[in-house]
Amino acid sequence: MQEEATLDYENAGQMLCLAQSHGWPLWKLSLAREARLQNCDEAQLLERMGGQYRIMRKSVRDGIQIRELSASRLSGGDARHLWDYSASDGPLFGPRFAKLAAYGFAVLEHNAQFGRIVATPTAGSSGILSACLLDLEENEGLDEMGAARALFTAAAIGVVIGKNASFSGARGGCQAEVGSASCMAAAAVTEARGGSPELACSAAAFALMNTLGMVCDPIGGYVEVPCVSRNGMFAVHSMLAAMMALAGVRCVVPLDDVVIAMRDIGRRMPRALKETSEGGLALTPTAKNLPPSEPFPNTSGSSAASGGRLFS
Question: 19-39: string of b/e by CB count within 10 Å (b at 16+)?
Fold first, then answer.
């Protein structure tokens, strides 16, 4: 029990101290902690996390193929538009930028059509980490084991957020969902690119601080608008946060302070702006005049991983 306790932490400061004392990157600390908690072999856990990444990769690739609208008629086919644009002559900022955004779109469009995803940390933010890791696989040579380690880095940051704030849009607004996902993804990308635990936390802080105050205002109550586009845009945001940290840009506010700020903002945010569809985009004239959606199909065969555990 004593060994297990030494691997637990309540905040990013304690997490960094533990990583430093053991000489570990964040992914190793996260893996060792999870192995103690589950009384499980680390190699087994890495293999299981690799399986989660395979589901994430498939959700991107399946989502790219979608051309029809969802039952709500709010999403569908836009990931493909971005993918096709990435292959066009001279896409803005180059093909990698457009493909990264397409991957974020793809997962949410796949989810909207009852496809299988991995909630990282929620279904409504599941495209961000998936997009970033597939981008690293395709452009930086990240292999499946490297992706599994990066997911443990993300999980390490997720523990900090989970213990000190919330992942719930209903409690904290979209900053708690997309903001947390971007925070986790930025750290994962940073360590995957050779950054230290300190740089990973800087990247996480950059990503999260620049999502503070984001409201959760889904049109019609569906996890589609603005959720789909936010996943594409904040996949790019995560990469930029990692780039800043890796470049040595100084993050003035530490991750723990940013997480506390997110919690405070979430508590002050009006209920109408926290996943109720009673404010923001959900009450615009366009949203109120949208035609009714089609009946939803039987979803008993669809599945999506829960955001409450590393493995369900």
Answer: beeeebbbbbbbbbbbbbeee
Answering whether pTM is above 0.70, one says yes
**Tens of pLDDT, residue by residue, the chain (312 residues):** 444 458 999 999 999 999 999 999 999 999 999 999 999 999 999 999 999 999 999 999 999 999 999 999 999 999 999 999 999 999 999 999 999 999 999 999 999 999 999 999 999 999 999 999 999 999 999 999 999 999 999 999 999 999 999 999 999 999 999 999 999 999 999 999 999 999 999 999 999 999 999 999 999 999 999 999 999 999 999 999 999 999 999 999 999 999 999 999 999 999 999 999 999 999 999 999 988 776 655 443 333 333 344 654
Residue count (the chain): 312
Peptide bond into 291 cis (omega under 30): no
Residues in Cβ contact with 129 at an 8 Å cutoff, skipping those fewer than 6 apart: 56, 120, 151, 154, 181, 184, 185, 188, 238
Q: Which one, of 35, 47, 25, lies nearest residue 147 by Cα?
A: 47
